[in-house]
Amino acid sequence: METIEYLRVLQQEIHSTVVATTDRDGHPVARVIDMMLYDNDGLYFLTAKGKEFYTQLMEQGYIAVSGMTGGDGTMSKKSVSIRGKVKNI
């Protein structure tokens, strides 16, 4: 599969993904975030400036994203995990 197809699965088929960062002490932090859009440049999501998540994104600049589709049994599900650089637009 091409990268764009993985992004499509994350945004359209999974939508609510687990996003991981680290806090100021270097400890892992995970939360569920809805993926809003994808294109050839990347995957898009929203957060508010006042949230700790926003601070972590701006300070670290990197995240990991994972998600799994629904389905009957593990053989009919899709799972995608990616990591990448964050860009505030």
Q: Describe the largest sheet.
A: 5 strands, antiparallel
Return the structural class.
alpha+beta
Catalogue the unreliable spans.
none
Radius of gyration: 14 Å
> Outline, from the CA principal axes?
globular
Number of helices: 2
> What order do the strands of the largest sheet run in, or round the barrel if closed?
3-2-1-4-5
SSE order in H/E notation?
HEEEHEE
Total number of beta strands: 5
**Percent in helix:** 10-25%
Taking all residues together, what is the mean pLDDT? Answer: 95
Span between termini: 27 Å
* Strand portion: 35-45%
Chart the SSEs and their pairings:
Layout: H1 3-14, E1 16-22, E2 28-39, E3 42-45, H2 52-60, E4 62-68, E5 79-85
Antiparallel strand pairs: 1-2, 1-4, 2-3, 4-5
Characterization of the model:
The protein is α+β, with helices and mostly antiparallel strands. 24% of the residues lie in helices and 42% in strands. The protein contains 2 helices and 5 strands, in the order αβββαββ. A 5-stranded antiparallel sheet has the order 3-2-1-4-5. The longest helix is centred in the N-terminal third of the chain and has 12 residues, at 3-14. The chain is globular, with a radius of gyration of 14 Å. The mean pLDDT is 95.
Looking at this protein, list some descriptive labels.
alpha+beta, five-stranded antiparallel β-sheet, 2 helices, 42% strand, globular, 89 residues, single chain
Short description:
The protein has two helices and five strands; from the N terminus they run H-E-E-E-H-E-E.
